[in-house]
Amino acid sequence: MAGPINWFSQIVSITKFGLLSIPQRRGAVAATVIGIAGVVTVLVGVLSIAAGFRQAMTVSASPDGAIVLRSGADSEMVSGLGRDQTRVIADAPGVARTAQGPLASAELFVIINIPKRSTGLDANVPLRGVESAAWQVRDNMKIVQGRMFEWGKDEVIVGAGAAREFSGLDVGSKIKVGRYEWPVVGIFSANGGAAESEIWADAKVLQAAYNRGDSFQSVYARLNSPGAFQEFKDSLTSNPQLNVKVARQSEYYAEQSETITRLITTLGFLIAFLMAIGAVFGALNTMYSAVSARTREIATLRALGFGSGAVVVSLMIESLLLALVGGAIGGGLAYFAFNNFHTSTMNWQSFSQIAFAFKVTPELLVRGIVWSALIGLIGGLFPAIRAARLPIAAALREL
Amino acid sequence: MNENQSNNGALVRVENVGKIFHRGSEDIHVLADLHLQVPAGEFLALMGPSGSGKTTLLNLIGGLDRPTKGSVVVAGERIDQLSDRTLAAWRARHVGFVFQLYNLMPVLTAERNVELPLLLTHLSKADRKKHVDAALAMVGLSHRAKHYPRTLSGGEQQRAGIARGIVTDPTLLLCDEPTGDLDRKAGNEILDLLQALNREHGKTIIMVTHDPHASARASRTVYLDKGQLSNEPVK
Ligand SMILES: Nc1ncnc2c1ncn2[C@@H]1O[C@H](COP(=O)(O)OP(=O)(O)O)[C@@H](O)[C@H]1O
Ligand SMILES: [Mg+2]
Question: How buried is A216 (Cβ within 10 angstroms: 0-12 exposed, 13-18 middle, 19+ buried)?
């Protein structure tokens, strides 16, 4: 007799009573919704830092890009390659060529101190010396203000992220490099990637200023195709003249961002988890009070023949709906408060500042909603079971 | 047809029933070796002092609770041994309850309240409406169909409660002090209504009351005291 349609209509009507009675318990309900919204805001907000950081580090890597460092070097900072070596690397099989020569840029990487706009305190900013192929070995490079520096001249261009985060990097201002003062002649963008946190100059000019002779730290190369990587790598690692480590740019950057991304993610989960425990108790409390406020109502329905399963499911749905509202509010809050929020932080692996924007991605929003749903289900389960187990006769005696 | 029913036409047969409640370490013996038979079409009043177990007995007959011992048979079916799930479906099909405090859903209008038991049937929306309208007309509440319980008088709320109790045309109508919270005039109207349901529509009604005015309307009165029923009030 009690078919699925019947069961469905029981659930619909009990759920409806619950939802319609929310105005009478609006205080507790609002507290729960806000609590869950808080969890989701924090979770999504913190994870958006990690997502933004990871994106900044990996967005500029093209699939057919490679980077070569000295063997054993974890980062450009501690790497070193001589001119003879960088030449062999540029001429290696697999490297794409144009009429001007191979698409490989031997680069120098030093760190200079520039005050942060936000704090006024000095922070480490990477200063990169590049060769002319630098524009072709990376994707999405663009001058957005001013002009490119002239090769051989004491001039620099500044990444858009660095210009935003640090003071004195606008076009027309000068930066101190050792004993010299070099003018900023342009601002460039790199699609939000790591290069945007850097200052660029001619590699030769930088070598002279830092007395580096004819040495570099890395070679950035563009290969004929992503598939050419293995050939390129094998030829370099098997060459007895060289002692190098070869990586795809994407892998290198992912590795560079790993420590900080993992730290932020772990921290975010930890904070959100602690808050979620609080929110579960909030939801429990709300649903227990919902059940006790409706004890006689629920008992009456069950006396009329409504099933206890329908009571459980309805209360779970109510709790779930409240939690989802909280989750949606939290996700929206995180999106409007954090998405594209620009900041910069120390990347310990390169020992320099990385400018990036928080990214509230659809995946993070889904994750926030899933968390809120779990909170709602856990918070609703025990009160719902209590409601279903109420002995009807005893519950009907309650006023 | 089982053997018990064939040699006795009673609609409700309570046999040898005992009911003990446990409160902490204390046992409360409410009913002991109780027998009751209610033939179809009877309007039975159940009287007795407060706390004598009237509600308990009504709950056993209505399948809201189970006896500690003995058996409860309604319309040939032994209900004290049904599973919770089966019992819920059985209640939906066979019993209408009328409560002292009406127990209407405050968030629903009178007609929606009356419709509730029909949600447990396979009736279409249109058919449900027909049944609801008929039940409301029968209790004289058609003009208040769209009102919420809090805007209705006590008498009107109890009419809605009775309409909800009869809307599925149940085998049995069980009323627990249906006039207990009403003034004399409203109470009399409710009793008129129950009497009419019994006389004109053949409803079998068991009504708990401690008001002699109410029991006077019934076709028979039994008295509960010290766990036992008798046909005479105990002095
Ligand atoms: N669920 C229960 N748990 C414990 N004691 C109960 C329960 N239901 C009823 N009682 C006790 O059983 C006795 C009879 O109660 P009840 O049937 O409500 O009496 P009446 O309806 O005649 O006033 C009372 O002493 C009451 O306290
Ligand atoms: Mg009672």
Answer: buried
